[in-house]
Amino acid sequence: MDMKVDSQKLIQLRNARAWSQQHLADVSGLSLRTIQRIEKTQSASHDSIGALASVFETTPDAPFPFFCSPANRAPCGRTGAWAGRCC
């Protein structure tokens, strides 16, 4: 199941580091096409979210800078670190 991403915040984080999409892909281990898709569709898999969280030095259980804001989160039936983090 894909999760909603605030692509504007993700782009801001990337640009604040002066990173291209290709550089973010390289440091995250994701493909350039995946980064482009996430930024365009505002949706990412759990694995992609985890890779991006690592790059931006956060964890899935920490407040996520580009993940759904608390105001628009809805229960999704997940447990553990991802509980309540689906939109």
Give keywords.
globular; 4 helices; 87 residues; 44% helix
- The arrangement of helices and strands along the chain is EHHHEH
Helix content: 40-55%
Mean pLDDT value: 77
Q: Are there runs of 5+ residues with pLDDT below 50, and where?
A: 69-87
The portion of residues forming beta strands comes to under 5%
Oligomer designation: single chain
Classify the secondary structure makeup into a structural class: mainly alpha
**Sheet bearing the most strands, described?**
2 strands, antiparallel
Query: What is the number of strand segments?
Result: 2
* N-end to C-end Cα span: 11 Å
Taking Cα atoms only, what radius of gyration do you get, to the nearest Å?
12 Å
